[in-house]
């Protein structure tokens, strides 16, 4: 049994990309591995947090985790800020993290371009905090997207450096994990890139039917194929990628045939795609509503997850303090 950790920032809701990319696999893995799933509210503070919205965002993501099938009786599901050892381990790791390597991260460079008026120390030290999240439970596997691979490499570097400095093998070198198969990457509706919260190109698990229909009908397309069996441009291939995730094989085969025969009507394709997406998310959305309405249950889940996570974290931090020579009189 390996230790698996994954987290999501509390700045938004879960979308189809989250669900097909990881959540479905997490539901399976929670029964075979030691799994930790957390909501990263500390990480969200590096941008422009709204204190009035933060708690609601955390509540939404927690409800969506549960609605998608994560079981708090089996896996440890917690909120990052409920575990104070995260901050302590981040501080201790930062003593051996160098300014130059943090400034060179692609995410830091990207963020300072997007928010030049708010280049804060937390933004610079984001990879250290992420490393603390992972190393806190000594995770061996971390499902990450392409945009986080550099951060995971830094986590391994920090772990190696700690082990070398103190002559120990305490921290494992956490490896990226794609569930033993090619990752399912759900593209956005704008024709480029992956589906995401900040790109405005996503379909969320909690979206009402009419919102889903409107979003899909506005998806980017082209003028259509000009010759039989033409190669699909990216914008059309993206729609078929989503269709393969939510529709039956017969439906995919039907519309693929229409494309190959130059008979495709994008309006019909989008209508079918929208209804299949609705059918996929409907049971999850119903669960989200029920869970959000049950504050007592959410409180129980958060409290239980915090207790388990703190127990695991305390073991790690206590040993790190001892290794570094921080002992009580």
UniProtKB/TrEMBL annotation:
<keyword id="KW-0963">Cytoplasm</keyword>
<dbReference type="GO" id="GO:0004830">
    <property type="term" value="F:tryptophan-tRNA ligase activity"/>
</dbReference>
<dbReference type="Pfam" id="PF00579">
    <property type="entry name" value="tRNA-synt_1b"/>
</dbReference>
<dbReference type="InterPro" id="IPR024109">
    <property type="entry name" value="Trp-tRNA-ligase_bac-type"/>
</dbReference>
<comment type="subunit">
    <text>Homodimer.</text>
</comment>
<keyword id="KW-0030">Aminoacyl-tRNA synthetase</keyword>
<dbReference type="InterPro" id="IPR014729">
    <property type="entry name" value="Rossmann-like_a/b/a_fold"/>
</dbReference>
<keyword id="KW-0648">Protein biosynthesis</keyword>
<keyword id="KW-0547">Nucleotide-binding</keyword>
<feature type="binding site">
    <location>
        <begin position="17"/>
        <end position="18"/>
    </location>
    <ligand>
        <name>ATP</name>
    </ligand>
</feature>
<feature type="binding site">
    <location>
        <begin position="145"/>
        <end position="147"/>
    </location>
    <ligand>
        <name>ATP</name>
    </ligand>
</feature>
<feature type="binding site">
    <location>
        <begin position="194"/>
        <end position="198"/>
    </location>
    <ligand>
        <name>ATP</name>
    </ligand>
</feature>
<feature type="binding site">
    <location>
        <begin position="9"/>
        <end position="11"/>
    </location>
    <ligand>
        <name>ATP</name>
    </ligand>
</feature>
<dbReference type="InterPro" id="IPR002306">
    <property type="entry name" value="Trp-tRNA-ligase"/>
</dbReference>
<comment type="similarity">
    <text>Belongs to the class-I aminoacyl-tRNA synthetase family.</text>
</comment>
<dbReference type="InterPro" id="IPR002305">
    <property type="entry name" value="aa-tRNA-synth_Ic"/>
</dbReference>
<feature type="short sequence motif" description="'HIGH' region">
    <location>
        <begin position="10"/>
        <end position="18"/>
    </location>
</feature>
<dbReference type="InterPro" id="IPR050203">
    <property type="entry name" value="Trp-tRNA_synthetase"/>
</dbReference>
<dbReference type="GO" id="GO:0005524">
    <property type="term" value="F:ATP binding"/>
</dbReference>
<dbReference type="GO" id="GO:0006436">
    <property type="term" value="P:tryptophanyl-tRNA aminoacylation"/>
</dbReference>
<protein>
    <recommendedName>
        <fullName>Tryptophan--tRNA ligase</fullName>
        <ecNumber>6.1.1.2</ecNumber>
    </recommendedName>
</protein>
<keyword id="KW-0067">ATP-binding</keyword>
<keyword id="KW-0436">Ligase</keyword>
<feature type="binding site">
    <location>
        <position position="133"/>
    </location>
    <ligand>
        <name>L-tryptophan</name>
    </ligand>
</feature>
<dbReference type="GO" id="GO:0005829">
    <property type="term" value="C:cytosol"/>
</dbReference>
<feature type="short sequence motif" description="'KMSKS' region">
    <location>
        <begin position="194"/>
        <end position="198"/>
    </location>
</feature>
<comment type="function">
    <text>Catalyzes the attachment of tryptophan to tRNA(Trp).</text>
</comment>
<feature type="binding site">
    <location>
        <position position="186"/>
    </location>
    <ligand>
        <name>ATP</name>
    </ligand>
</feature>
